[in-house]
Amino acid sequence: MSGRYLLGLDIGSSSVKASLVDADSGVCVSSAFYPEKEAPIIAVKAGWAEQDPQMWWDNAKLSMRKVMSEASVAGEDIKAIGISYQMHGLVCVDRELKVLRPSIIWCDSRAVPYGEKAFDALGTDLCLGHLLNSPGNFTAAKLAWVKDNEPDLFGKIYKIMLPGDYIAMRLSGVVNTTVGGLSEGMFWDFKNKEIATFLLDYYGFDSSIISDIVPTFSVQCEVCASTAKELGLKEGTPISYRAGDQPNNALSLNVFNPGEIASTAGTSGVVYGVLGDVNYDRRSRVNTFAHVNYTKDLDRLGVLLCINGTGILNAWMRRNVAPEGMSYSDMNDMMASVPIGSDGVTIIPFGNGAERVLENKEIGCSIHGVNFNKHGKAHMMRAAQEGIVFSFCYGMEVMQQMGMDIRKIHAGRANMFLSDIFRNTLAGVSGAVIELYETDGSVGAAKGAGIGCGIYKDHDEAFATLKKLSVIEPDETHRAEYLEAYSLWKDKLQRQINK
């Protein structure tokens, strides 16, 4: 098919997805992902998580070839490429741009002590005032681990990259990065609006290890001749957008302005809100990064709340509590027979590891208020979903303390957002309107590329065709019941924290 198309890539830890979007209609004409089974993660030791960047590239090529073939789209009709990627990963290359070691990815925890030591040495005011976060377990701390444990390899490093930077390099042969990428790695100084040289100096990193910075929306680089020949693309096709998966998910849902919220609720859950002023949580219960439309002249920050125990708890309930073979839809119908507040049953849902919103405490999952004479499976299942929502709202209170006015939540109609109980409880407690859309990360990356190359004049034009599927208004008639249940849950949570 001839026309104008935009190609979006979403580089996840499970798979790489590609989507082709018709630039004029805004419609996705083809999508594909590889591998079809979940990609392997290398875990040589407990707490480690690595992936071979070549695997991302191989799966990206397979995905690109498939969408172009299925849609019968020629390379010269693809006008721009956008990239979304798993955040916080570390890719190291030498002067020949060869990868020196597997990427240490986002869920690898080996660098935690390096971040904690830097935070203690540099101090709260310097780190939070400039980085807006503790150095934590982010890319800079991962590089510090490499420097300390693999000094010979560290000495060969020419540039470091995030996963999206690596894919852009494979497409173009050019190494560069964005402020958003630097901020998620703890390499960006928000106060001075420059590379965080104080952290580089502390860790002993030469500033030359950082790639050149390009704007998030811009012609960052172009497809090189060798890649064009290999994939059937046109040489010179611009790579014109790049962002981490959570900022990109917000972009995919047209979330750009202060107070707007994007949320996902899969295995883990995320609430990502845009802040218009530089701020941070002094207790580091949420993370703050540059949003896709952040510039040195415009403060647009993405505040990220992550809840580990989300869909994984609902899945546990299905396996262990629900009648055998019951679908999620049937579970939702069954728990609808139980009143708001689950008749006094409350579940603290933190059974999937330490939670940052609890200052990295690991309090586990606990069940409270069960009466053997009146409570059954439906009460347990509803209490689980309510507990997940309450954990979201608990973190959203931190975001509100930072100055965020939460009135509307944008989400894809998927995972936990398919549940009426989940949606109505979230709207009922938060008081926010929930809007559900049909989109995904690779489609968002494609439209981001359209903004970056100038096909779209702004994000409003790019997302004018974003399909709104439904709107959930807060149920004011039952608001008091939702808030009472939330208050009871918070009391139980505080007791667990204080143990």
- The number of distinct helices, counting runs of at least 4 residues, comes to 17
State mean pLDDT (0 to 100 scale). 96
Shape: globular
Query: N-to-C terminal Cα separation, in Å?
Result: 64 Å
Which percent range describes the beta-strand content? 15-25%
Uncertain runs: none
The helix content, as a percent range, equals: 25-40%
SS-based class: alpha+beta
Overall radius of gyration = 23 Å
Count all strands and give the number. 23
If strands are numbered along the chain, what order do they take across the biggest sheet?
17-18-16-15-21-22-23
Quick description:
By secondary structure, this protein is an alpha+beta fold. It has helices spanning 53-71, 112-122, 124-131, 139-149, 151-154, 163-172, 179-184, 197-203, 225-231, 245-252, 311-320, 328-335, 377-401, 420-430, 441-452, 459-462, 479-498, and strands at 5-11, 16-22, 28-34, 50-51, 78-85, 91-93, 103-104, 159-161, 176-177, 188-189, 194-195, 212-213, 217-222, 238-244, 260-265, 269-275, 287-290, 301-307, 346-350, 364-368, 408-412, 433-438, 467-472.
What does this structure look like?
The protein contains 17 helices and 23 strands. It is an alpha+beta fold and 499 residues long. The protein has helices spanning 53-71, 112-122, 124-131, 139-149, 151-154, 163-172, 179-184, 197-203, 225-231, 245-252, 311-320, 328-335, 377-401, 420-430, 441-452, 459-462, 479-498, and strands at residues 5-11, 16-22, 28-34, 50-51, 78-85, 91-93, 103-104, 159-161, 176-177, 188-189, 194-195, 212-213, 217-222, 238-244, 260-265, 269-275, 287-290, 301-307, 346-350, 364-368, 408-412, 433-438, 467-472. Strands 17-18-16-15-21-22-23 form a seven-stranded mixed sheet. The longest helix has 25 residues, at 377-401. It is 36% helix and 22% strand.
